[in-house]
Design goal:
The protein is mostly helical and 165 residues long. It has helices at residues 3-32, 40-73, 83-103, 109-128, 136-160. The chain has one domain (3-160). It has 5 helices and no strands. Helix 1 (3-32) runs antiparallel to helix 4, helix 3 packs antiparallel against helix 4 (109-128) and helix 4 (109-128) crosses helix 5 (136-160). It starts with a helix and ends in a 5-residue tail after the last helix.
Length: 165
């Protein structure tokens, strides 16, 4: 197996683990809070889900760096400036910053959760949408709109379930 294939597989695995970990973590989190209390079993499910998510993020960062080096040294430098790649790199920075802010309890869970799940799915979609012809501004505005929609959805769900914000 050559380096490009190994990097691609690592990148796909990282994305799958990140999207899957975030999706299951969000589902388990809302299910756990239905009664207003997270019991030890629910806590363990959340812990494992978020560990999977962290492994996915680490693999994504490592493989993304590998992609970047591969592009740089294989004369594919024009791709480095494409809006889709810049957006994906920005999403990784957002995911890292959001994880740090959530860990330090500097932002509410409903905002951090909305940013996280939207960012993971945006990275998945941008990675798979090969022919996307959109500017960085368009990608950013669509992403921000989805973050707002998901945050409103999470806030509404919390209110419906009587979960404190």
């Amino acid at each position: 197996m050559d380096w490009a294939t190994a990097i691609k597989l690592l990148h796909i695995i990282g994305t799958v683990l990140g999207v899957g970990g975030e999706t299951l973590g969000s589902i388990f989190y809302f299910r756990a809070l239905r009664d207003g209390n997270i019991n030890p079993t629910e806590s363990e499910f959340l812990r494992v889900s978020f560990q999977v998510l962290r492994v996915g993020l680490i693999l994504l960062v490592i493989s993304g760096f590998g992609y970047f080096l591969n592009m740089r040294f294989s004369e594919h430098t024009a791709y480095i400036f494409e809006p889709r790649l810049i957006a994906k790199l920005s999403l990784v920075v957002i995911l890292l910053g959001n994880a740090l802010l959530l860990h330090m309890h500097k932002i509410p869970m409903w905002i951090g959760g909305a940013i996280s799940i939207t960012s993971w799915y945006a990275a998945l979609i941008l990675g798979g949408w090969r022919g996307l012809d959109a500017s960085l501004l368009t990608i950013t505005l669509v992403y921000l709109a989805f973050v707002v929609v998901v945050a409103i959805g999470e806030r509404t769900l919390r209110k419906m379930m009587h979960i404190p914000l």
